[in-house]
Amino acid sequence: MTSALTDRKRRRTIVRAAAALAVIFFVSILVESATASLAERVHTYVSSEFGIFANAYLLETPDGVVAIDTTLTVSDAKAFRERLAALGRPLLAVLLTHGHPDHYNGLTQLAAEAEVPIIATEDVDRVIREWDARKEEQWKSTFGDEWPTRRTFPNRTIRHGDSVSFGGVRFTAYDLGPGESHHDAYWLADDGTSRVAFIGDLAFNGEHAYVSDGHTGSWLKNLDSAHWALAGVALIYPGHGPAGGLELLDQQRRYIEHYRESVRTLARGRTSLTDAEKGQLTEVMTTFLPKGRLTFLISNGADAVAAELAAEASPDRMLRRDER
Ligand SMILES: [Zn+2]
Q1: What residues make up the domain containing 73?
Q2: Which of 30, 32, 54, 34 is nearest to 44 (CA)?
C-alpha cells in the first residue's frame, strides 16, 4: 500500500517535471523567435578601415527607421545614408551612444536636413560639444576632406532610464559615465516581445580598443553594470566588430585587465612609457589578441592608462583628482 502510494507520487512528480520542461521549452522557442524578429530588422553598416571600422545601425520599424550612431568619414556617412535611402522609409530619429567622432561625425550627412530628433544623454551631449573643436584640431590633418567641415550635434537630451518610442519600439537610455570615452551610454530597444542593445564602444568585439581617454578603471565597472542590466538580451550590437551575446562584455573585461596589467608592469608607477616600452606593450597586446585590427590604438593609449594607474596607486593624487 505504502509503496503503491510512493509510486503514484513519484509518477506525479515526473509528469509535473515533464510538463514544466515542456513549458520552458516552448517559452524559450517563443522568446527566440520574437528576438529574431527585432534583430532581423537591424541593418549594420561597417565603416571602412579609414573610418576605424566603426559600426552604425539602422533599425526598421513599421513607421520608419531609427539610426544608432553615424560613422566618422564623409564617404562612410554618404554610404550609410544610401543604405537608409535603399530602405525606402523615412528616418524617424538618430540615437547616439557616446561622443567620439567615429560615432557622431556622420550626423551632418545623415540628419542635418531631416529635422528629426537627434538624441543623446545630457552628459554625452555635453562631451560632444566640449570636445568637438579639439577633436577636429587633432584629426583634421589625418582625415583631410574626409573630416566633415560642419558637424551636427544632438537636438534633444534624455535622462538615464528614460525612454523614447518610435514605430512601436521603445528605446531606453542607460547612462554609464566615463569609460571608453569621457562619458558613455547605451540603448536598449524593446518591441514588447524582444530586446536588443546598442552598446557603442563599451565593447570592441575582436578589435583592439581605444583606451586613450584614460578611464579603464571605470570602464571595468561599466562592464559589470551592463552585464547585469543586459542579462536576457539576446543580441548586443557593439561600436566595432560583429554583434554577439554577453560574452562581448566578458572579452572586453579580459582585454582591459590584460592591458592594465601590462602597462602597470612596464610603467612601474611612472605616468608615461618610453617608445621602446610602447613597442613592448604592442607586442604583448597583439599576442593577446592576434587577429585584432586597429593595432595603432595600443601604443596610443599607453600614457593615458599609465597616468590613470599612477593616480589610482597614489592616495594623494587621487585626492587631488577628486578635488578638481
Ligand atoms: Zn568607436
Answers
A1: 38-245
A2: 54
